Amino acid sequence: MSIKAVNTMEIRLHTGANTCLEDNLRHFAAGLGESPGCMGYSVTRSAIESNLWILCGHWSGEEQMISHFSNELLEAMIRSLVGYPIAISFSHFVAPDTATEYLRN
């Protein structure tokens, strides 16, 4: 099975590193990794910026990725971040349909 979609969330803490925040992110990522169609969900802390974490989900399909955006666990994770002085950015990527690409050429 190949990866068809990827979502990322960058979380930048304005006041420096916080191990409690990192533990919470890892807990939520483990639960989100059990979502239908999820091929893996990870948390990576930047080696250069100690106050930056990147959550990344890999999906077997675009529909599964989109569905997870309304997942109660993802919503709970975002609510848990409310008390932190942070900036969050979201991105997602979808692989082009190879059959459609082939037909266009």
Account of the protein in words:
The chain is of the alpha+beta class. It has a single domain (5-104), classed as Alpha-Beta Plaits. The protein is 35% helix and 32% strand. The protein contains 4 helices and 4 strands. It has helices at residues 19-32, 62-68, 72-80, 98-104; strands at 5-13, 38-45, 52-59, 86-94. Strands 2-3-1-4 form a 4-stranded antiparallel β-sheet. The longest helix is centred in the N-terminal third of the chain and has 14 residues, at 19-32. It starts with a strand and ends with a helix. Mean pLDDT is 88; it is low at 98-105.
Approximately how much beta-strand content do the residues carry? Answer: 25-35%
- Report on the biggest sheet: 4 strands, antiparallel
What's the structural domain tally? Answer: 1
Radius of gyration, rounded? 15 Å
Following the backbone from N to C, one meets helices and strands in this order, namely: EHEEHHEH
The whole-number mean of residue pLDDT values reads: 88
Q: What's the SSE blueprint?
A:
Elements: E1 5-13, H1 19-32, E2 38-45, E3 52-59, H2 62-68, H3 72-80, E4 86-94, H4 98-104
Antiparallel strand pairs: 1-3, 1-4, 2-3
Helix pairs in contact: 1-3
Keywords summarizing the entry:
alpha+beta, globular, 32% strand, four-stranded antiparallel β-sheet, Alpha-Beta Plaits, single chain, disordered C terminus, 105 residues
What's the short story on this structure?
The protein is α+β, with helices and mostly antiparallel strands and 105 residues long. It has a single domain, classed as 2-Layer Sandwich (Alpha-Beta Plaits). The protein contains 4 helices and 4 strands.
